[in-house]
Amino acid sequence: MFAAGGIVALLLYLQQQQVISVDVEKMEASLNFIFNSVASSFDNITQIGDITSLGIPIAGGLSAGFTIGLMKG
Q1: pTM of this structure
Q2: Angstrom distances, CA of residue 36 to CA of 40, 55, 69
Q3: pLDDT digits 0-9 by tens, 46-62
Q4: Greater confidence, 47 or 36?
Q5: Sign of the C-alpha dihedral computed for residues 5, 57, 34 and 25 taken in this order
Q6: Total Cβ atoms within 10 A of residue 11
Q7: Which distant-in-sequence residues (6+ apart) come within 8 Å of 70 by Cβ?
Q8: φ/ψ (deg, to 5) at 19
Q9: How far is Cα 24 from Cα 12, in angstroms, rounded to an integer?
Q10: Which residue has the higher pLDDT, 37 or 60?
Q11: What whole-number distance in Å separates Cα of residue 4 and Cα of residue 63?
Q12: What is the tens place of the pLDDT at every residue in 2-26?
């Protein structure tokens, strides 16, 4: 969660410096979706060693796509 907060802080800083333009409502909706997905994947874990159900690769891909999408938009 610390890394996600750092990314959001960086995006907001770049918006303040007028380097990029960020739609805050769209960013908030996407972050809520990502955090809810990750949180629900942790709720569904039945075994401690079950790494495939953590959802970390999916969340990583979503956050990378989200960041690139914001930079293009």
Answers
A1: 0.43
A2: 6, 11, 20
A3: 555 555 555 556 666 66
A4: 36
A5: positive
A6: 19
A7: 11, 20, 22, 23, 26, 27
A8: -85, -40
A9: 9
A10: 37
A11: 8
A12: 677 788 888 888 888 889 887 888 8
Residue 25 to residues 28, 31, 37: CA-CA distances in angstroms? 5, 10, 18
With a CB cutoff of 8 Å and minimum separation 6, the contacts of 53 are: 41, 44, 45, 46
Q: Where are the domains of the chain?
A: 2-72
| Burial class of 9 by CB neighbour count within 10 A (0 to 12, 13 to 18, 19+) | exposed
How far apart are alpha carbons 21 and 53 in whole angstroms?
Answer: 35
Q: Are 20 and 11 in contact (CB under 8 A)?
A: yes
Question: For residue 68, which amino acid is it?
Answer: I
In angstroms, the CA 11 to CA 15 distance is 6
The pair phi, psi for residue 16, each rounded to 5°, is -65, -35
